[in-house]
Amino acid sequence: MNYLETERACRRGDTSAEAIHQRLVATRLMTGLSQKELAANAGIKYTTFRSQEQSGAPSVQLMSYFLSAFSVDFNFILGGDPARLPADVLQEILKHLG
């Protein structure tokens, strides 16, 4: 996948709730954790996590967890910018986008 294809798959610059939802789902799938496991690991209620993922409105706590545990940057989650993602993380996320 070339640079432009990666940018399109990540929906770079798209800050809509739908785009953020897709990036959150792809990021969760990349972790290999269920929604319940991820919520527990992030220290938030399952229902809260599910609501944040569905609405495309992640909390700072959830984004901080993704950053510290999986090196997934806020800029990717909120705006689709893949520049700060480690190459292996980006490749795994791309498998679940689109």
List the helices and strands and how they pair.
Blueprint: H1 3-10, H2 17-31, H3 35-42, H4 46-55, H5 60-70, H6 74-79, H7 87-94
Structure in words:
The protein is 67% helix and 0% strand. With 98 residues, it is mainly alpha-helical. The chain is globular, with a radius of gyration of 12 Å.
Query: Could you say which overall geometry the principal axes of the C-alpha atoms support?
Result: globular
Average of the residue pLDDT scores: 96
Number of strands: 0
Q: What's the main sheet like?
A: none
Low-confidence stretches: none
| Radius of gyration from CA coordinates | 12 Å
Output the helix-strand order: HHHHHHH
* Share in β-strands: under 5%
The termini sit apart by 13 Å
Helix/strand-derived category reads mainly alpha
Quickly count the helices. 7
Helical residues, percent: 55-70%
Q: What's a concise summary of this model?
A:
The protein is built from 7 helices and no strands. The chain has 98 residues and is mostly helical.
Summary keywords:
7 helices; mainly alpha; globular; 98 residues
